[in-house]
Amino acid sequence: MLEKNAERLLVGAVLALAASTLLPVARRTLIPLAETGLQTLSGLTERVKAGIEIARNEVEDVVAEAQFERMRKRLDKEIEMAAMESDC
Hints:
Elements lengths: L1 H86 L1
Organism: Paenibacillus gyeongsangnamensis
Protein name: DUF5132 domain-containing protein
């Protein structure tokens, strides 16, 4: 039993030493990686926003063209009817 406790104490001490050595290294490595990841995500977000804006503008253009065509056809029809009435 004493041998098991000594083994556990030794394992705990080794883990504490390893953690105190590895944590600063991991911090120096992971913080720049996280910053790079955030910058990449920010850039990607901006590109997606720009893409959505372009798509929205395209849809607005198509709708405006369709409305213009509808209005043009209606006016052409009214002009034609007015011409027919003046002929009679």
